[in-house]
């Protein structure tokens, strides 16, 4: 097992990454307090809720669960309200814990319920997708979607601990596994060219879910995320780099009703578009986008916008991105593989990249 400490203004917390952690209550039980609301989705609950519930029963803890429908469409204000109702019904007090058992959707929504209930109670993240283990569960961004924009409603609320059991990824389908790899590639692209090259050389064992390669990829990703969060917890500067590919990606997710693309798939396409824009603006060497495309394709991720998506609608949705200031669209651009920057971008150039894709 590998442990990374995430340093934040409110203190530090551990991210445990390893095999068999769900069956090792000694690792995670001590991070719980008071009554526990386990938030999960109907796929994950069928697989892992009983195991977690048994531990809670054995220690005599008062708990209940809230099981949401699986998928991005469940990340709504209505379901956040359901989580708050469940906390009230549980009789949760300030010492209660929300235990988020699932992917990034569950983690973001449960985290936001914990952030808002009684102005903030403890949350423990138990991510069960690759994407949530390498990114969503770490760093304290919580929230839900609005029909007009991704993650428009939310709060920063750091977890008390993150328990990433890579054995849970065995049951993940290929599509969701690959979607998680997009955020792994992101760390290489924005801050670590050597990691990017390592991914290029290890694509086969990663595709084959080999535990050693997977453990290394998850651990390296968590370390990158922990470093960025420690440096800029509330996204005043450097943290915005973690949004590489997300301005395009979030617009694509919203334009397609949060139903057609996994978040990671939309981010993969978005990273390619952002790199093409970086090339168009002369920020990065021509050919960088092709190298990125090659790796993403090797990891079975999409790299181009489908023809039927309305480019002007995407542009309109990008205007609501949280990084924008003074009505100007700001995007993460690459300067080279391993180095990125956030810049205001001319609308005509963004439009050109969208139209050419
Ligand atoms: N807070 C952050 O910093 C942050 C970072 C990245 C992404 N996100 C958010 O995370 C969300 C995407 O997360 P995701 O990709 O995990 O999606 P998800 O939570 O929808 O999970 C994907 C699918 O995998 C299923 N699943 C989960 N664990 C499983 C398992 N072990 N075995 C079998 N099936 C399993 C789920 O039921 C779901 O159908 C998006 O809403 C995105 O905005 C947040
Ligand atoms: O942790 C961050 O910061 C990120 O930007 C990580 C992203 O991968 C993640 O998708 C995040 O939820 C996007 O945040 P948003 O502020 O653009 O909604
Ligand atoms: Zn993301």
TrEMBL record:
Residues 180-324 form the 3-dehydroquinate synthase C-terminal domain. HAMAP family: DHQ_synthase. PANTHER family: 3-DEHYDROQUINATE SYNTHASE, 3-DEHYDROQUINATE SYNTHASE, CHLOROPLASTIC. The gene is aroB. Binds 1 divalent metal cation per subunit. Can use either Co(2+) or Zn(2+). It catalyses: 7-phospho-2-dehydro-3-deoxy-D-arabino-heptonate = 3-dehydroquinate + phosphate. This is 3-dehydroquinate synthase. It holds the Pfam family DHQ_synthase. GO terms for cellular component: cytoplasm. It is found in: Cytoplasm. One of its GO terms (molecular function) is 3-dehydroquinate synthase activity. The lineage of its organism: Bacteria, Pseudomonadati, Pseudomonadota, Gammaproteobacteria, Chromatiales. Its cofactor is Co(2+); Zn(2+); NAD(+). NAD(+) binds at residues 104-108, 128-129, 141, 150. NCBIfam families: aroB.
